[in-house]
Amino acid sequence: MVPALEVRSLTKHYDDGTVALSDFNLSVPDGAFFGLLGPNGAGKTTLISAVCNLIRVTAGEVLVFGQPADTLEARRSVGLAEQDINLDRFLTVEETLVYHGGYFGMSRAESSQRAGEMIDVFDLRAKAKVRTPRLSGGMRRRLLLARALMHRPRLVILDEPTAGVDFELRQELWRYIRRLHEQGTTILLTTHYLEEAEALCEEIALIQGGRLIARDTSEGLRDRYGATSLEGVYVKAMAGAEPTGATR
Amino acid sequence: MTGTQGLVWLMRRETLRVYKLWTQTVLAPVIASILFMVVFGVSLGDRIREIDGYEYGVFIVPGLIAMAMVQAAYSNNSSSVFQARSDRYINDVLSAPMRPWQVNLGLNIGGIVRALLIGLALLVLAVPLTGVPVEQPLVLLVAVLLGLVLFGALGTIVGIYAETFDHHTFINNVLILPLVFVGGVFYSVDMLDSPWQELSHVNPLFYLVNAVRYGFLGTSDVSVALSLGVTAALAVPTYLWSQYLFSTGKKLKA
Question: Are A13 and A19 in contact, with CB atoms under 8 Å apart?
Fold first, then answer.
Protein backbone atom coordinates (compact mmCIF):
# COMPACT_ATOMS: atom_id res chain seq x y z
CA MET A 1 0.00 0.00 0.00
CA VAL A 2 1.32 3.46 -0.93
CA PRO A 3 2.01 5.48 2.24
CA ALA A 4 0.04 8.66 2.76
CA LEU A 5 3.28 10.51 3.37
CA GLU A 6 6.84 9.54 2.56
CA VAL A 7 9.69 11.86 3.46
CA ARG A 8 13.11 10.90 2.15
CA SER A 9 16.37 12.53 3.25
CA LEU A 10 14.65 15.87 3.73
CA THR A 11 16.97 18.72 4.61
CA LYS A 12 16.04 22.33 5.14
CA HIS A 13 18.52 25.11 5.79
CA TYR A 14 16.94 28.53 6.28
CA ASP A 15 18.62 31.64 4.89
CA ASP A 16 19.84 32.65 8.36
CA GLY A 17 21.78 29.39 8.58
CA THR A 18 19.34 27.52 10.82
CA VAL A 19 19.23 23.82 10.02
CA ALA A 20 15.59 22.94 10.67
CA LEU A 21 15.67 19.42 9.26
CA SER A 22 18.66 17.26 8.48
CA ASP A 23 18.44 14.11 6.37
CA PHE A 24 14.96 13.49 7.78
CA ASN A 25 13.09 10.31 6.87
CA LEU A 26 9.52 9.43 7.76
CA SER A 27 6.75 7.28 6.39
CA VAL A 28 3.14 7.66 7.50
CA PRO A 29 0.84 4.80 6.42
CA ASP A 30 -2.42 5.48 4.64
CA GLY A 31 -5.23 5.69 7.20
CA ALA A 32 -2.95 6.24 10.19
CA PHE A 33 -3.48 8.65 13.06
CA PHE A 34 0.08 9.83 13.45
CA GLY A 35 1.48 12.15 16.10
CA LEU A 36 4.55 14.31 15.79
CA LEU A 37 6.01 15.49 19.09
CA GLY A 38 8.96 17.69 19.81
CA PRO A 39 9.92 20.97 21.47
CA ASN A 40 9.60 24.35 19.76
CA GLY A 41 12.15 24.57 16.97
CA ALA A 42 12.38 20.79 16.57
CA GLY A 43 11.37 21.03 12.91
CA LYS A 44 7.69 20.00 13.09
CA THR A 45 6.30 23.05 11.34
CA THR A 46 9.13 22.99 8.80
CA LEU A 47 8.24 19.40 7.96
CA ILE A 48 4.58 20.32 7.57
CA SER A 49 5.49 23.33 5.43
CA ALA A 50 7.56 21.10 3.16
CA VAL A 51 4.62 18.73 2.72
CA CYS A 52 2.28 21.64 1.93
CA ASN A 53 4.55 23.40 -0.53
CA LEU A 54 5.10 26.38 1.76
CA ILE A 55 8.90 26.31 1.94
CA ARG A 56 11.72 25.70 -0.51
CA VAL A 57 13.40 22.48 0.56
CA THR A 58 17.19 22.33 0.47
CA ALA A 59 17.41 18.63 -0.40
CA GLY A 60 15.36 15.47 -0.30
CA GLU A 61 11.98 14.35 -1.46
CA VAL A 62 8.43 14.48 -0.12
CA LEU A 63 5.78 12.17 -1.56
CA VAL A 64 2.06 12.39 -0.81
CA PHE A 65 0.24 9.18 -1.75
CA GLY A 66 3.19 8.44 -4.04
CA GLN A 67 3.11 11.84 -5.80
CA PRO A 68 5.79 14.52 -5.34
CA ALA A 69 4.41 17.09 -2.88
CA ASP A 70 4.65 19.96 -5.35
CA THR A 71 2.35 18.32 -7.90
CA LEU A 72 -1.25 19.47 -8.18
CA GLU A 73 -2.51 15.94 -7.44
CA ALA A 74 -0.55 15.79 -4.18
CA ARG A 75 -1.67 19.25 -3.09
CA ARG A 76 -5.30 18.32 -3.75
CA SER A 77 -4.87 15.42 -1.28
CA VAL A 78 -3.66 17.50 1.64
CA GLY A 79 -5.63 19.67 4.06
CA LEU A 80 -3.74 21.90 6.48
CA ALA A 81 -4.85 23.64 9.66
CA GLU A 82 -1.91 25.80 10.65
CA GLN A 83 -0.83 26.59 14.15
CA ASP A 84 -1.36 30.34 13.71
CA ILE A 85 -4.76 31.70 12.78
CA ASN A 86 -4.35 32.70 9.15
CA LEU A 87 -7.81 33.64 7.92
CA ASP A 88 -8.53 36.07 5.11
CA ARG A 89 -9.72 39.24 6.85
CA PHE A 90 -11.86 40.34 3.90
CA LEU A 91 -13.98 37.20 3.77
CA THR A 92 -16.93 36.02 5.82
CA VAL A 93 -17.01 32.55 7.39
CA GLU A 94 -19.00 31.18 4.48
CA GLU A 95 -16.81 32.87 1.87
CA THR A 96 -13.67 31.57 3.57
CA LEU A 97 -14.89 28.03 3.03
CA VAL A 98 -16.39 28.51 -0.43
CA TYR A 99 -13.28 30.26 -1.78
CA HIS A 100 -11.00 27.62 -0.29
CA GLY A 101 -13.07 24.94 -2.02
CA GLY A 102 -12.70 26.88 -5.25
CA TYR A 103 -8.92 27.16 -4.90
CA PHE A 104 -8.87 23.39 -4.51
CA GLY A 105 -10.86 22.78 -7.69
CA MET A 106 -14.46 22.54 -6.47
CA SER A 107 -17.29 24.01 -8.53
CA ARG A 108 -19.41 26.78 -7.04
CA ALA A 109 -22.36 24.46 -6.34
CA GLU A 110 -20.16 21.75 -4.82
CA SER A 111 -18.19 24.25 -2.76
CA SER A 112 -21.32 26.02 -1.46
CA GLN A 113 -22.93 22.73 -0.47
CA ARG A 114 -19.80 21.50 1.29
CA ALA A 115 -19.36 24.86 3.04
CA GLY A 116 -22.90 24.53 4.38
CA GLU A 117 -22.07 21.09 5.76
CA MET A 118 -18.87 22.32 7.40
CA ILE A 119 -20.67 25.34 8.90
CA ASP A 120 -23.19 22.99 10.52
CA VAL A 121 -20.61 20.45 11.67
CA PHE A 122 -18.50 23.13 13.33
CA ASP A 123 -21.49 25.04 14.69
CA LEU A 124 -20.72 28.23 12.80
CA ARG A 125 -24.19 28.81 11.29
CA ALA A 126 -24.92 31.92 13.37
CA LYS A 127 -21.68 33.51 12.16
CA ALA A 128 -21.78 32.37 8.54
CA LYS A 129 -22.09 35.93 7.19
CA VAL A 130 -19.65 37.47 9.66
CA ARG A 131 -16.17 38.53 8.57
CA THR A 132 -13.36 36.56 10.17
CA PRO A 133 -11.76 39.35 12.28
CA ARG A 134 -15.05 39.57 14.22
CA LEU A 135 -14.98 35.93 15.33
CA SER A 136 -13.92 34.77 18.78
CA GLY A 137 -10.69 32.79 19.15
CA GLY A 138 -12.53 29.48 19.47
CA MET A 139 -14.62 30.14 16.39
CA ARG A 140 -11.56 31.07 14.36
CA ARG A 141 -9.94 27.80 15.40
CA ARG A 142 -13.06 25.88 14.33
CA LEU A 143 -13.12 27.71 11.02
CA LEU A 144 -9.46 26.86 10.43
CA LEU A 145 -10.25 23.20 10.89
CA ALA A 146 -13.36 23.43 8.72
CA ARG A 147 -11.31 25.09 5.98
CA ALA A 148 -8.68 22.34 6.12
CA LEU A 149 -11.40 19.73 5.60
CA MET A 150 -13.41 21.61 2.96
CA HIS A 151 -11.99 19.83 -0.08
CA ARG A 152 -12.20 16.36 1.52
CA PRO A 153 -8.43 15.77 1.72
CA ARG A 154 -7.13 12.24 2.23
CA LEU A 155 -4.31 13.52 4.44
CA VAL A 156 -5.18 16.11 7.09
CA ILE A 157 -2.34 17.92 8.82
CA LEU A 158 -3.19 19.55 12.12
CA ASP A 159 -0.45 21.75 13.52
CA GLU A 160 -1.29 22.40 17.17
CA PRO A 161 -5.03 22.46 16.43
CA THR A 162 -6.03 22.87 20.08
CA ALA A 163 -3.47 25.49 21.09
CA GLY A 164 -5.22 28.14 23.18
CA VAL A 165 -8.54 26.33 22.97
CA ASP A 166 -10.74 25.81 26.03
CA PHE A 167 -11.44 22.33 27.41
CA GLU A 168 -14.95 21.99 25.95
CA LEU A 169 -13.93 22.96 22.44
CA ARG A 170 -10.86 20.73 22.64
CA GLN A 171 -13.06 17.74 23.50
CA GLU A 172 -15.37 18.65 20.64
CA LEU A 173 -12.49 18.92 18.16
CA TRP A 174 -11.07 15.60 19.35
CA ARG A 175 -14.41 13.91 18.75
CA TYR A 176 -14.61 15.29 15.25
CA ILE A 177 -11.02 14.40 14.40
CA ARG A 178 -11.56 10.85 15.70
CA ARG A 179 -14.66 10.48 13.55
CA LEU A 180 -12.74 11.73 10.54
CA HIS A 181 -10.03 9.15 11.14
CA GLU A 182 -12.60 6.38 11.50
CA GLN A 183 -13.84 7.31 8.04
CA GLY A 184 -10.38 6.52 6.63
CA THR A 185 -8.68 9.92 6.60
CA THR A 186 -5.00 9.94 7.47
CA ILE A 187 -4.24 12.41 10.26
CA LEU A 188 -0.87 13.94 11.02
CA LEU A 189 -1.06 15.79 14.32
CA THR A 190 1.47 17.95 16.10
CA THR A 191 0.68 18.97 19.63
CA HIS A 192 2.27 20.01 22.88
CA TYR A 193 -0.51 18.28 24.82
CA LEU A 194 1.05 14.87 25.41
CA GLU A 195 -2.16 13.39 26.79
CA GLU A 196 -3.83 14.47 23.56
CA ALA A 197 -1.25 12.58 21.50
CA GLU A 198 -1.48 9.56 23.76
CA ALA A 199 -5.26 9.45 23.55
CA LEU A 200 -5.57 10.01 19.83
CA CYS A 201 -2.51 8.77 17.98
CA GLU A 202 -1.84 5.21 16.88
CA GLU A 203 1.81 6.02 16.32
CA ILE A 204 4.02 8.80 17.57
CA ALA A 205 7.31 10.16 16.29
CA LEU A 206 9.59 12.20 18.51
CA ILE A 207 11.75 14.76 16.79
CA GLN A 208 14.42 17.04 18.12
CA GLY A 209 16.92 19.31 16.40
CA GLY A 210 15.57 18.36 12.98
CA ARG A 211 16.10 14.64 13.50
CA LEU A 212 13.77 11.73 14.16
CA ILE A 213 14.82 10.25 17.50
CA ALA A 214 12.11 7.65 18.11
CA ARG A 215 8.95 6.30 16.57
CA ASP A 216 6.49 3.76 17.92
CA THR A 217 3.08 3.32 19.44
CA SER A 218 2.54 5.10 22.71
CA GLU A 219 2.85 1.77 24.54
CA GLY A 220 5.96 0.82 22.56
CA LEU A 221 7.62 4.13 23.40
CA ARG A 222 6.84 3.67 27.11
CA ASP A 223 8.41 0.21 27.05
CA ARG A 224 11.49 1.27 25.18
CA TYR A 225 12.17 4.27 27.40
CA GLY A 226 11.17 2.47 30.59
CA ALA A 227 8.58 5.15 31.36
CA THR A 228 5.08 4.90 32.78
CA SER A 229 3.62 7.70 30.69
CA LEU A 230 4.23 9.48 27.39
CA GLU A 231 5.28 12.48 29.41
CA GLY A 232 8.03 10.36 30.96
CA VAL A 233 9.08 9.18 27.51
CA TYR A 234 9.18 12.74 26.24
CA VAL A 235 11.29 14.02 29.12
CA LYS A 236 13.79 11.16 28.78
CA ALA A 237 13.97 11.36 25.00
CA MET A 238 14.51 15.11 24.96
CA ALA A 239 17.19 14.76 27.62
CA GLY A 240 19.08 12.51 25.24
CA ALA A 241 18.28 9.09 26.71
CA GLU A 242 18.71 6.22 24.24
CA PRO A 243 15.72 3.88 23.72
CA THR A 244 16.42 0.25 24.53
CA GLY A 245 15.04 -0.96 21.18
CA ALA A 246 15.66 0.13 17.62
CA THR A 247 13.50 2.84 16.11
CA ARG A 248 10.98 1.35 13.72
CA MET B 1 -6.77 18.79 -12.47
CA THR B 2 -5.32 21.85 -14.19
CA GLY B 3 -5.80 24.52 -11.57
CA THR B 4 -8.15 26.49 -13.84
CA GLN B 5 -10.95 26.41 -11.29
CA GLY B 6 -8.54 27.70 -8.65
CA LEU B 7 -7.45 30.53 -10.93
CA VAL B 8 -11.06 31.59 -11.49
CA TRP B 9 -11.73 31.61 -7.73
CA LEU B 10 -8.55 33.52 -7.00
CA MET B 11 -9.57 36.15 -9.55
CA ARG B 12 -12.99 36.29 -7.89
CA ARG B 13 -11.40 36.75 -4.48
CA GLU B 14 -9.19 39.59 -5.68
CA THR B 15 -12.11 41.38 -7.37
CA LEU B 16 -14.40 40.71 -4.40
CA ARG B 17 -11.97 42.69 -2.27
CA VAL B 18 -12.28 45.61 -4.70
CA TYR B 19 -16.09 45.48 -4.61
CA LYS B 20 -16.29 45.14 -0.83
CA LEU B 21 -14.06 48.16 -0.31
CA TRP B 22 -15.49 50.13 -3.26
CA THR B 23 -15.61 53.47 -1.45
CA GLN B 24 -11.86 53.27 -0.90
CA THR B 25 -10.84 51.36 -4.00
CA VAL B 26 -12.98 53.06 -6.66
CA LEU B 27 -14.97 56.03 -5.38
CA ALA B 28 -12.11 57.89 -3.67
CA PRO B 29 -9.72 57.90 -6.68
CA VAL B 30 -12.58 58.84 -9.03
CA ILE B 31 -13.48 61.84 -6.86
CA ALA B 32 -9.81 62.86 -6.59
CA SER B 33 -9.35 62.74 -10.37
CA ILE B 34 -12.57 64.61 -11.08
CA LEU B 35 -11.45 67.30 -8.63
CA PHE B 36 -8.14 67.56 -10.54
CA MET B 37 -10.08 67.96 -13.80
CA VAL B 38 -12.39 70.59 -12.40
CA VAL B 39 -9.84 72.56 -10.40
CA PHE B 40 -7.04 72.53 -12.98
CA GLY B 41 -9.30 72.61 -16.04
CA VAL B 42 -11.55 75.41 -14.82
CA SER B 43 -9.06 77.49 -12.87
CA LEU B 44 -6.16 77.27 -15.33
CA GLY B 45 -8.11 76.62 -18.53
CA ASP B 46 -8.69 80.30 -19.26
CA ARG B 47 -5.06 81.24 -18.62
CA ILE B 48 -3.32 78.56 -20.69
CA ARG B 49 -3.44 78.61 -24.46
CA GLU B 50 -4.63 75.56 -26.36
CA ILE B 51 -2.23 72.62 -26.45
CA ASP B 52 -2.07 70.56 -29.65
CA GLY B 53 -5.37 72.12 -30.68
CA TYR B 54 -7.22 71.16 -27.50
CA GLU B 55 -8.39 73.29 -24.60
CA TYR B 56 -6.30 72.80 -21.49
CA GLY B 57 -9.22 71.23 -19.61
CA VAL B 58 -9.46 68.57 -22.30
CA PHE B 59 -5.70 68.12 -22.72
CA ILE B 60 -5.14 67.04 -19.11
CA VAL B 61 -7.94 64.43 -19.01
CA PRO B 62 -6.02 61.49 -20.60
CA GLY B 63 -3.03 61.95 -18.27
CA LEU B 64 -5.25 62.22 -15.20
CA ILE B 65 -7.13 59.05 -16.14
CA ALA B 66 -3.84 57.23 -16.80
CA MET B 67 -2.44 58.43 -13.47
CA ALA B 68 -5.51 57.29 -11.51
CA MET B 69 -5.51 53.89 -13.21
CA VAL B 70 -1.83 53.03 -12.79
CA GLN B 71 -1.84 54.13 -9.17
CA ALA B 72 -4.90 51.98 -8.50
CA ALA B 73 -3.39 48.93 -10.20
CA TYR B 74 -0.20 49.35 -8.19
CA SER B 75 -1.78 50.13 -4.81
CA ASN B 76 -4.36 47.38 -5.04
CA ASN B 77 -1.90 44.60 -5.74
CA SER B 78 0.81 45.77 -3.39
CA SER B 79 -1.57 46.08 -0.45
CA SER B 80 -3.51 42.90 -1.23
CA VAL B 81 -0.38 40.76 -1.57
CA PHE B 82 1.33 42.36 1.41
CA GLN B 83 -1.72 41.79 3.62
CA ALA B 84 -2.01 38.19 2.46
CA ARG B 85 1.67 37.65 3.33
CA SER B 86 1.51 39.54 6.59
CA ASP B 87 -1.56 37.65 7.87
CA ARG B 88 -0.24 34.48 6.21
CA TYR B 89 -3.51 33.62 4.49
CA ILE B 90 -1.52 33.55 1.27
CA ASN B 91 -0.58 30.03 2.44
CA ASP B 92 -4.11 28.95 1.56
CA VAL B 93 -3.36 29.91 -2.04
CA LEU B 94 0.26 28.70 -2.15
CA SER B 95 -0.73 25.25 -0.87
CA ALA B 96 -3.64 24.96 -3.31
CA PRO B 97 -3.40 22.91 -6.51
CA MET B 98 -2.60 25.84 -8.76
CA ARG B 99 0.38 26.45 -11.01
CA PRO B 100 2.64 29.44 -10.33
CA TRP B 101 1.46 31.27 -13.47
CA GLN B 102 -2.12 30.89 -12.29
CA VAL B 103 -1.36 32.33 -8.86
CA ASN B 104 0.54 35.22 -10.46
CA LEU B 105 -2.28 35.97 -12.89
CA GLY B 106 -4.98 35.58 -10.24
CA LEU B 107 -3.28 37.98 -7.83
CA ASN B 108 -2.62 40.53 -10.58
CA ILE B 109 -6.21 40.65 -11.78
CA GLY B 110 -7.58 42.58 -8.78
CA GLY B 111 -5.54 45.68 -9.58
CA ILE B 112 -6.43 45.52 -13.25
CA VAL B 113 -10.16 45.23 -12.55
CA ARG B 114 -10.03 48.06 -10.02
CA ALA B 115 -8.13 50.30 -12.46
CA LEU B 116 -10.57 49.51 -15.28
CA LEU B 117 -13.54 50.38 -13.05
CA ILE B 118 -11.91 53.70 -12.19
CA GLY B 119 -11.03 54.35 -15.84
CA LEU B 120 -14.56 53.62 -17.01
CA ALA B 121 -16.11 55.79 -14.30
CA LEU B 122 -13.76 58.66 -15.17
CA LEU B 123 -14.48 58.26 -18.88
CA VAL B 124 -18.23 58.36 -18.28
CA LEU B 125 -17.86 61.50 -16.16
CA ALA B 126 -15.14 63.24 -18.18
CA VAL B 127 -16.84 63.05 -21.59
CA PRO B 128 -19.86 65.20 -20.63
CA LEU B 129 -17.78 67.33 -18.24
CA THR B 130 -14.94 68.26 -20.61
CA GLY B 131 -15.97 66.97 -24.03
CA VAL B 132 -12.81 64.86 -24.32
CA PRO B 133 -12.94 62.69 -27.47
CA VAL B 134 -11.74 59.10 -27.94
CA GLU B 135 -10.03 59.34 -31.31
CA GLN B 136 -8.08 56.06 -31.31
CA PRO B 137 -9.93 53.51 -29.14
CA LEU B 138 -7.72 50.58 -30.15
CA VAL B 139 -4.53 52.43 -29.23
CA LEU B 140 -6.19 53.51 -26.00
CA LEU B 141 -7.10 49.94 -25.15
CA VAL B 142 -3.59 48.61 -25.84
CA ALA B 143 -1.94 51.47 -23.94
CA VAL B 144 -4.18 51.01 -20.92
CA LEU B 145 -3.68 47.25 -20.82
CA LEU B 146 0.11 47.57 -21.08
CA GLY B 147 0.12 50.22 -18.36
CA LEU B 148 -2.01 48.09 -16.08
CA VAL B 149 0.13 45.00 -16.59
CA LEU B 150 3.22 47.09 -15.79
CA PHE B 151 1.86 48.70 -12.63
CA GLY B 152 -0.22 45.72 -11.49
CA ALA B 153 2.84 43.49 -11.65
CA LEU B 154 4.99 46.17 -9.98
CA GLY B 155 2.45 46.26 -7.14
CA THR B 156 2.55 42.49 -6.81
CA ILE B 157 6.37 42.54 -6.68
CA VAL B 158 6.42 45.28 -4.05
CA GLY B 159 3.76 43.37 -2.07
CA ILE B 160 6.07 40.35 -2.08
CA TYR B 161 9.22 42.24 -1.09
CA ALA B 162 7.67 44.72 1.39
CA GLU B 163 8.57 44.18 5.01
CA THR B 164 6.20 46.82 6.37
CA PHE B 165 3.05 48.49 5.06
CA ASP B 166 5.01 51.75 4.65
CA HIS B 167 7.17 50.23 1.91
CA HIS B 168 4.39 50.12 -0.63
CA THR B 169 3.27 53.70 0.04
CA PHE B 170 6.92 54.76 -0.13
CA ILE B 171 7.31 53.42 -3.67
CA ASN B 172 4.06 55.12 -4.69
CA ASN B 173 5.00 58.47 -3.17
CA VAL B 174 8.65 58.70 -4.15
CA LEU B 175 8.66 56.89 -7.48
CA ILE B 176 5.31 56.54 -9.23
CA LEU B 177 3.63 59.82 -8.33
CA PRO B 178 6.61 62.09 -9.16
CA LEU B 179 7.32 60.26 -12.43
CA VAL B 180 3.68 60.56 -13.51
CA PHE B 181 3.55 64.25 -12.59
CA VAL B 182 6.70 65.06 -14.59
CA GLY B 183 5.63 62.69 -17.36
CA GLY B 184 3.48 65.31 -19.06
CA VAL B 185 0.12 64.83 -17.35
CA PHE B 186 -0.41 68.57 -16.97
CA TYR B 187 1.65 69.88 -19.91
CA SER B 188 3.16 69.05 -23.27
CA VAL B 189 6.93 68.56 -23.09
CA ASP B 190 7.19 70.86 -26.10
CA MET B 191 6.46 73.66 -23.63
CA LEU B 192 9.62 72.82 -21.65
CA ASP B 193 13.07 74.28 -22.20
CA SER B 194 16.22 72.23 -22.56
CA PRO B 195 17.35 70.12 -20.68
CA TRP B 196 13.92 69.39 -19.14
CA GLN B 197 12.48 68.45 -22.48
CA GLU B 198 15.26 65.90 -23.12
CA LEU B 199 15.09 64.62 -19.54
CA SER B 200 11.38 63.95 -19.94
CA HIS B 201 12.26 61.39 -22.58
CA VAL B 202 14.11 59.21 -20.07
CA ASN B 203 11.01 59.08 -17.87
CA PRO B 204 9.24 55.81 -18.74
CA LEU B 205 5.89 57.19 -17.53
CA PHE B 206 6.12 59.92 -20.17
CA TYR B 207 5.58 57.25 -22.86
CA LEU B 208 2.58 55.73 -21.10
CA VAL B 209 0.93 59.13 -20.62
CA ASN B 210 1.54 59.93 -24.27
CA ALA B 211 0.22 56.59 -25.51
CA VAL B 212 -2.99 57.13 -23.52
CA ARG B 213 -3.22 60.72 -24.72
CA TYR B 214 -2.87 59.55 -28.31
CA GLY B 215 -5.72 57.12 -27.72
CA PHE B 216 -7.94 59.95 -26.52
CA LEU B 217 -6.85 62.96 -28.56
CA GLY B 218 -5.03 61.42 -31.52
CA THR B 219 -1.99 63.55 -30.72
CA SER B 220 1.11 63.10 -28.56
CA ASP B 221 4.63 64.42 -28.00
CA VAL B 222 6.29 61.31 -29.46
CA SER B 223 5.26 58.64 -31.97
CA VAL B 224 2.61 56.26 -30.69
CA ALA B 225 4.69 53.26 -31.79
CA LEU B 226 7.56 54.42 -29.58
CA SER B 227 5.18 55.10 -26.68
CA LEU B 228 3.60 51.66 -26.89
CA GLY B 229 6.98 50.01 -27.49
CA VAL B 230 8.61 51.54 -24.41
CA THR B 231 5.58 50.73 -22.25
CA ALA B 232 5.56 47.12 -23.51
CA ALA B 233 9.32 46.87 -22.99
CA LEU B 234 8.74 47.74 -19.33
CA ALA B 235 5.52 45.77 -18.83
CA VAL B 236 6.78 42.41 -20.10
CA PRO B 237 9.91 42.09 -17.89
CA THR B 238 8.02 43.44 -14.87
CA TYR B 239 5.34 40.78 -15.27
CA LEU B 240 8.04 38.13 -15.81
CA TRP B 241 9.77 39.26 -12.63
CA SER B 242 6.55 38.76 -10.73
CA GLN B 243 6.18 35.35 -12.39
CA TYR B 244 9.75 34.45 -11.39
CA LEU B 245 8.93 35.14 -7.74
CA PHE B 246 5.94 32.78 -7.84
CA SER B 247 7.80 30.11 -9.84
CA THR B 248 10.78 30.03 -7.49
CA GLY B 249 8.96 30.91 -4.26
CA LYS B 250 11.64 33.51 -3.58
CA LYS B 251 10.52 35.92 -0.81
CA LEU B 252 7.19 34.06 -0.63
CA LYS B 253 8.44 30.82 0.85
CA ALA B 254 11.17 30.57 3.50
Answer: yes
